[in-house]
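User: Hey, my collaborator sent me this sequence without any context and asked if I could get a structure. I don't really work with proteins. Can you help?
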Amino acid sequence: MEPNASIRLLLFTDTHLGFDFPIRPRLQQRRRGPDFFANFRRVLKHAREHRPDFVIHGGDLFFRARVPQRIVDIVYTDLLEFAAEGIPILIIPGNHERSVLPISLFLNHPNIYIFDQPRSYLFTIAGVSVAFSGFPCERKIVRDRFSSLVSSTGFHALDSQIKLLCMHQTVEGAQVGPSDYTFRSGKDVIRRSDLPIDAFAVLCGHIHRRQVLGRLDKAERDLPAVIYPGSTERTSFAERDEPKGFYEIELAPQPAGNWQIIGLDFIQLPARPMEDLILDGNLTPDTLASTIRSQISDLNRDAILRIIAGPDLDPKVKVLITSRFLRQVLPESMNFQFGKGFNVWRNEKSGSA
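Assistant: No problem. I've predicted the 3D structure and written it out in structure-token form, which is a compact way to encode the shape of the chain:
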């Protein structure tokens, strides 16, 4: 291998394809589903143009386990077309898929690798052996089973220069939400001390906020860094301030003969703004529509709104705030959902309008 040669990875995850993407929509209105597909395709387009050695999807390719066959075919057609470019893509089944991807002949392409069970995939790039070990999302007691799951992949017996662990799990120290909630314990949280020290890095999905746990300049006896690229789109208001995108990772040999991560670049993807619309005060049935229009006049026309009922909102006004009413008042380019102060029925019926 050339002295300055490197190995490049592209890591993305939690695309949640199929969310708000009805095949036969009852109402013709803007949906959020196309946003998720658009960013998925932006990542694949970037990979086609920049030609990494490997692409890794860290899990939750789909937004749930059972999705319409039409959506499965759309997603797998995109994957098949990408695989034809000659770049290996490795995919971990996530918890939203209940750890199993929908079956399809499309997945038999030689450049598509699925961690459908604990296993390892071995590659040689310019004379350098690279191993990816991984397992489908463990949705029960991964804390107790983690070491045996890693062993089941054959990881410890691998004689590769670079050994990467791929998974869709929560690791101790990961943070989420506007309050920076930190996972520290629990049956679904993997202890950092249990990570194999001979792993070069852990490429991980499941946590929607991008973050890196540990040091990228790993020494021989250090625990590996855990790299979360985060989701490619905002899936909830807890993520409203989070940039969305994916990581480009570059590995290079060092004079001492070891390898290190010399590049970790976050490539940001478009994400629509999320805004709260609080309805309160002296609203009347006659002023409701005009007040809403005035409150949103300075907002991005592509915003996703969360409609919140303030404590002083007149009940006679509150009952008028329905999905049908909001569709008439808000621009067609906006999506909305009901938040605090509205009952469960209304929240369920609104969805993403």
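In plain terms: The first strand starts at residue 7 and ends at 12. You can pass these tokens on to your collaborator as they are.
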